[in-house]
Please model this.
Amino acid sequence: MEFKDYYKTLGVAKDASEKDIKSAYRKLARKFHPDVNKEPGSQDRFKDINEAYAVLSDSEKRKKYDELGSNWQAYERMGGAPGAGRRTVYTYGPGGSTFDFSDFFETFFGQMAGQMGGERRGAGGGVGGAFETIFNLGGTGRTRGANAAEMPGQEAEIEVSLEEVARGGERVVNLAGRTATVTIPKGIRQGMKLRIPAAKSGVGADVLLVVRYARHPVFSAEGEDVSVQVDVPVTIAVVGGEIEVPTLEGSVKMKIPALTQGGRTMRLRGQGLPRWKASGKGDELVTLRLVLPPNLTEREKELYAELHRLRQGK
Model:
């Protein structure tokens, strides 16, 4: 079982703020994304970066991780705790590469949930508890206290990324030791359900996966629209120009009118999420944050000083 230092993976201190963690993740994810970086090992690095962010960006998971870090050797000696050796498989993008979370991530967070459901597994034959362990690490499942074979259907949450919502794709999930492939339709909305029939679920009943959008480091979603904040140099805000804006399909150029104020929200039409069972897409709402140019030269400082004197003379 491999211990991974998630703080080291993101290059942040152990007392890093949520903002620092998010900023570090965004920089690394852009650098090592498989669509951008074709160097050997970049895909594994991208996997590690996402794994680290999945834990450190969640306050409860981060707390468990921090507690485990100080008692690692003692926990490791526990040996065959419930859920050991089980892996959950994730995919990204249509036809994208498949990767497994590390043994450390799955064993720790899977076993924590498995221990919570241990009594139920002992009494009920194992199906309900195992199902909760796989899909509800925090113990928030709707199947609590029931055996799947005794129910007409099972429900659990499944997190999907906004990229999966935008493009569609497939996800391989592990249900009580049996894998099943789930199709993520384009434009699927939170609260909708994906059905895995009993013949494929391996738990003796249909499985309904309730869709929840995974937390995204860059975008937020509201219906079919997505929102993002971008930095705009003061010089461009004053005289106008173009900036690059991230979208779910890659970066695009956006024109900034002269004398644009900070906090203004501009609209990129058709850059949001696909409409559910309809043509077209929502929009992307871009909120502008004005930033000072870094590393000003002496000449640039003189020009800013001259501008200040001109403004004061009015």
